[in-house]
Amino acid sequence: MDKSRTMYPCMLGINTLEEIVNTEDLQEVDFANWETWKLHQWMDTQGLGIFGQKLPAGWTGSNIMKLDIAGLEQLGIKHPLHVKKLVLALRNAGKEDAPGKLHCDTWVLPWLQEIGLPQHVPAFREAMVDGRVLNWLTYEDLRVLKVRLRLHAVSIMRAIELLRECNFDPAYLNSSRIDNTTRPADVMLWTHQNVKQWLSSNFFAEYTPALKESGIHGALIIKEPLITSSFLLKLLKIPSSDVSCQMFETTFNKLVGPHVLLEKRLAETDKNVKPLSTQTKLSKSFKGRRSLQNSLSRRKRKESSEWLTYVVPFNEEPEVPAIELSYETKEEISGIQREVQNLTVLLSGNEEEDEDPLSKE
Fold first, then answer.
1. Which residue from 91, 77, 78, 74 is spatially nearest to 20, judged by alpha carbons?
2. Which residues of the chain have pLDDT under 50?
3. Model-level pTM?
């Protein structure tokens, strides 16, 4: 295979855009007969105006569909994610965009800063990442975007999950607040700055500089089981011998609540789960969870399997074999459950414990 094609994951194994886009959908809007002026207008609304200006006079939609790699490069479309952005835009040509601001890219860079990863802004800007590209982001794309650390990849993954839940309306981050009635659902909306404010309000202001460019935000804290008090203690560099250590653990456990805390404790005791660290790099062989079907193509291609490795899979429910827990494991889980229940009573001041799904019969 032509070596240059390795630069375009979504083009591997095919010759033209027509082979990767569902032409039946485009036939419904008569895309093949769109005139040059309409193509200019459409590409401009999709954040691709800089390339639309280079379309030869007299071109129609059919010329766009017959573009191969050489043709794309002649239009200046050389970045792998520019190709992907065009492909995703073609899938929605003539349709109303839903949900939220999927086709818009003006909010992506501020969003990246709000989740605590400003160092990745230049690469995302160069790639012209919009909501659609985020929604269909793959681990191969992360490498193109120079996201090297596993922690940063997980941070982006959890942030995209929340974007989907909020219909890709980035304004959700601006509605969060910090007070004494904060619930896990509120914490999930916290920006990176909100996390620093929470630390400062609980007498940990001296440790906040350690959070710089870490990607720690509310959705990551609540959604990711591997973001535990132990992990944050190491990240913040709070001495284990310091009284602040125990104080932080109590404060963090109260913040996330008993149910989220239980998930984190179970993840910590799971020997099959690889612990998260601040410096672990994203492995070149890491595949993530692979999608069961290629939503961008009508046929599967072995060569483009990496194109299917989504950071956040789409409605995928992998088969999970039944696991018979050993007596020791059951006892360990029960011990964690009792610890969480005791913590709930301690924090609430209420002796009546709520019934928990893992309670002993």
1. 91
2. 1-6, 285-307, 317-325, 350-361
3. 0.80
Cβ neighbors of 291 (< 8 A, separation 6 or more) are: 308, 309, 310, 313, 314, 316
CA–CA separation, 162 vs 8, rounded Å? Answer: 28
Residue 253 CA to residue 235 CA, distance in Å, equals: 17
DSSP string, 217-250: -HHHHHH-TT--HHHHHHHHT--TTSHHHHHHHH
CA triple 242-248-251, angle to 5 deg = 150
Compute the distance between CA of residue 69 and CA of residue 277 in angstroms, rounded to an integer: 39
Contact between 245 and 238 under an 8 Å Cβ cutoff? The reply is yes
Report how far residue 301's alpha carbon sits from residue 279's, in angstroms, rounded to the nearest whole number: 34
- The letter for the amino acid at 223 is K
Q: Specify the pLDDT at position 360.
A: 44
Q: 105: closest CA among 78, 82, 87, 75?
A: 82
Provide the token pair at 306. Answer: 């990496």
For residue range 58-73, what is the model confidence (pLDDT) as tens digits? Answer: 999 999 999 988 899 8
52 in Cβ contact with 90 (< 8 Å): no
CB distance 300 to 142 below 8 Å: no
